Amino acid sequence: MKKLVKVLAAALVLTIAAFPAMATADTTVDVTKAGAPTTAIESGDTIRVSAGSPISTSGSINQTLAATWSKESLRLGDTGSIMLPEGWTLEYTTDNENWSATAPGDLSTVTGIRAVGDVTTNGRNTFTTKANSQVVATQDNFQGSSGGDGYALTFGADRVYNVFHHDGSLRVDCHVKATGASCYGGATQFLGFTTGNASEAFWDSSRSALWALARNSSTGQGGFACVDYSDKPNPKLCATNFVALGAVNTAQELGVSTRIGNKVYVINEADWKLLCLDISTGAACTNNGFQLPGTPAPGDKTLYGRVASAGDFKVYFSTTSHIGCYNPTTNDFCGAPVALGQAGGQYPMFPVRNDERDLIGMCFFRTQQCLDGNGLEVNVLPAALSTWMTNNPVPNWNTYNAGNWAEQNNKIYLNDGPFGTASPDVYCFDYTTGDACAGFSGRNVGVRIYVIVADPSIPNCLWTNGDAGQITTFNGTTGLPGCSLEYPVVEMPYTAVAPRLACSESGRVLTWETIQFDIPDGIEASDLNVTILDSDGAPIPGWVDLSPNANGLLSMQSLTVETTGTKPTIQVNAGVVDEALLAQLTATVKFEAEDPELCFDLVAAPNCPEFVPGAGDLTVPDGLIQTAAITYSADGEALAAGDAEVTLSGTNTDDVCAASIAKLALPEINQEESGGSDLADTGADSGLMLMAVFALFMSIGGGLLIRQAKR
After folding, report:
1. Nearest-angstrom CA–CA distance, 635 and 292
2. In terms of domains, do 205 and 191 share one?
3. Cβ(187)–Cβ(143) under 8 Å?
4. How many other β-carbons are positioned within 10 Å of the β-carbon of residue 129?
5. For residue 132, how many other CB atoms are within 10 A of its CB?
6. Is it the case that residue 448 has pLDDT exceeding 90?
7. Mean pLDDT within 448-471
8. What is the pTM of this model?
9. Which of 592, 625, 650 is the last residue of a domain?
10. Do the domain assignments include residue 291?
11. Which segments within 220-272 are labelled E, that is strand?
């Protein structure tokens, strides 16, 4: 390969010389192939390009991250592969002169992209954001599955998801909690999977994905399908679209499941093994397949394998013959499983607590047997609750993986009878008072209810879904339909609190520092009750109803990212105040994060006028890539600039053309590297080239270098 030549037009040098010297930014470019660093390409390769540049100055900053590449050897493969900082603007160029926010129809014509955005910094890796308030509200009810019946509900940020059950495909519906509006104009269908009666799903905030319990039709394996909702206008299956956990004859042999931390457990009724998905790794747990008691009878609808959990990190299970407790830490039973008083199972075991909210037992509805955390049978069921259960046996329709309880504020909420019908009612028992919830109605709050689910972020709000696919909400205190709040509540979502700057989700937040509230007149700092919700929308223990200091400052330095996740929400109420006044509340959040990045995929392919590759020919010219960054102050002063470049060795045969790149030139930096003022012999008209160089320089604060690699 002949030596690379870099040149700069003389007219451009004179233009650049007028700029004052500026700091050099430590701009980087990393190129990987199949996840590993690479220095060579051949036709058909997909490479991942990651460009980054730190921001070391403080204040309000505007940054441009840009990249160009050799069109003779590389082309943009997929706009969906582009990752840029959240809230920044993405633009494309096909002539290195004009930029557009709209990608051209033919992506092979794109020769460069750039991302432009504003940030506020306090030195390198330390950022502040100004978050506005959104009033918290929910729709009273809406159709969850467009006319079909549904099952469980899953919350992800401001959305609620439900998966169609006993279905011949995987269909997932999504609605906005506040309005009930459909997220995507209807349910999204994925073929190749089937769902059973207990079609539960679990939100993965780290991937912005949904793990749905299903059977893989082609392999016969039961497990979890993964639907990706990250940065895409439409959901699609994840790269790893299914995690197999065990063979099942039908999806109906996958029972009611439960989540403990990032582990999801479900019983395989085909062999009575306890299956386990590790959401954090996207794979089967190391202890997947623990054997439970019971005799398999494939296809028998009297099998009811159900699991439940209640905060003590143990799995409470029921089979047709036993109830018991499994300890994931020891990968063993907590104690010997206990024989059921009568065959068959209904309803997963539910928690019984004392007036201090301590878990004292998990109880089985049908036989009223209870187990403690050691797996021992105990008599802890309150008399009033036992009497109600005796008078309201679980209805017949609820006997085959349909039905689940909810708890909130030391109260348990159960589906109400009577026997043989699908009731629209909910019963509430208060463990603090030891009696039925005072002032609770619970009448006609749902439609043939399958499940009750506590809202993870809205106080005193519960949801139902049922046989008609009607999703409803009701008040946990009054038992009346709808989630009217005692006080107005506002929240600041993670997209405003900590927008992602790096390409990796793990780089969104490294450490938390402070929240500074800007409080409108009419509200005092002492009025504010601040709650931090984790990435799954659940209140973080110890971070509920906190008050900032007299200046509206709340320190977050003791709060770890491991606790919050990378997508937390700030929720605030101020007691009895006007909702419109509270909505004026804003907050400045200070945190540490990784540097801004621009990442994308390029595909290696020859683009030479006189070269037509034959079948199997992997010939391609060298790949040339340059990334550049320019940082401006709020008043438009250029503060820092830098670039980085990489050459990827092609196959270098005599059949392909030379690779050239229209390189972004930066003040001071590339001027010193130019080494001359003559244009390279590219065959282009020099006058036209100078015009193109000057135009791009004016558009991004830099210019162009024409760089060429011979074969």
Report:
1. 68
2. yes
3. no
4. 18
5. 13
6. no
7. 87
8. 0.72
9. 592
10. no
11. 221-228, 236-247, 258-260, 263-268
Q: Average pLDDT of 307-324?
A: 93
Answer yes or no: do 575 and 605 share one domain.
Answer: no
Q: How far is CA 480 from the centre of its chain?
A: 32
CATH number of the domain that residue 423 is part of = 2.40.10.480
pLDDT top residue among 63 and 671 = 63
Q: If you search the block for the tokens 């190129």, which residue do you land on? A: 31
Cα distances (Å, whole numbers) of residue 48 to 86, 110, 232, 458, 599: 19, 16, 19, 41, 7
Do residues 108 and 10 share a domain?
yes
349 close to 308: Cβ distance less than 8 angstroms: yes
Per-residue pLDDT reduced to its tens digit, 218-245: 999 999 999 999 866 789 999 999 999 9
Residue 699: half-sphere exposure toward Cβ, Cα within 13 Å: 23
Range of the domain at 604: 5-124+595-709
Residue 502 lies in a domain: yes
- Rounded to 10 degrees, the C-alpha dihedral 562/500/239/252 comes to 60
How many domains is the chain partitioned into structurally?
A: 4
Same domain, 165 and 102: no
Dist. CA 63–CA 633, nearest whole Å? 9
Q: What is the pLDDT of residue 153?
A: 92
Residue whose C-alpha is closest to residue 673's, from 639, 638, 626: 626
Torsion region of 462: left, alpha or beta (phi above 0 gives left; psi -120 to 50 gives alpha): beta
Q: Mean pLDDT across the stretch 190-213?
A: 93
- Does the residue 419 lie in any domain? yes
Assess whether pLDDT exceeds 80 at residue 9.
no
Q: Is residue 340 part of a domain?
A: no
Tell me: do 583 and 607 sit in the same domain: no
